[in-house]
Amino acid sequence: MKLKKIAIMIIFFTMLSSGLFALEKNSIEKDISAKINQALDILSIKNLSKDQQAQKIFNLLDEVFDYSIMSKLALGKQQWATISNSEKKEFVRLFEKKLKQSYVDKLALYDNQKVVILGLKDYQKNRLQLQTELIGKGETYPINYNFYNNKGDWKIYDVDISGVSIIQTYRQQFSGLLKEKSFQEILAQLRSEDIK
Q1: How far apart are CA 130 and CA 46, in angstroms?
Q2: 196 part of a folded domain
Q3: Which neighbouring-strand residues pair with 149?
């Protein structure tokens, strides 16, 4: 179970979105493989605190996830269409911070796992999937990164861990919350987590 948690959080956060890095289709496999290996090298530095390790990884790899698209998909397109531009911007910021904090909390579970790149395949129009495996002590988990084409720049918008989509998981959580609370209440809850 620990390996699965580390798969979800550590490998997911090997790549985040700043828009400064253009990823072309023919370089995805090579570039992502290099970034994952660099992130794992940082995690192996034992004299760094978990926060320091996380910050180094964020600084190094804060490049290829599209947090705006991820936030829209996680909240749901219908709900997204009803909120203001300022609320969208704040939700994206808070959602990204929530994911990063969850990552920092999971760093203690890292125990020298390895990642193997299996290959890149087309799976929908203007969509690609990079298939990898996380290998630990007696356990292996498939991890698939889903990319979309943003004017020639490929961005990750979801990650499947053992067939479970991270974005669909969050969408289910937000959908459940929206049955009991308004979006403004959810935003207030995320703000309270942000200032803790």
Answers
A1: 29
A2: no
A3: 154
- pLDDT tens per residue, the chain (196 residues)? 555 555 555 555 554 443 445 688 888 998 888 888 888 888 888 898 888 888 888 777 667 788 899 999 999 999 999 999 999 999 999 998 887 777 777 776 777 788 899 999 998 888 999 999 988 787 888 889 899 998 888 888 988 888 888 899 999 999 999 999 999 999 999 999 876 5
Of 121, 123, 74, 124, the residue nearest 94 (C-alpha): 74
CATH code of the domain covering residue 154: 3.10.450.710
Measured CA to CA, the distance from residue 142 to residue 121 in angstroms comes to 15
Please check whether residue 48 lies inside any domain of the structure: yes
Residue 73's nearest CA partner among 137, 140, 158 is 158
- Could you give the number of structural domains in the chain? 1
The secondary structure of residue 13, as a DSSP letter, is: G
- Contact between 18 and 67 under an 8 Å Cβ cutoff? The reply is no
Tokens, residue 100: 């990063």
Q: What is the pTM of this model?
A: 0.82
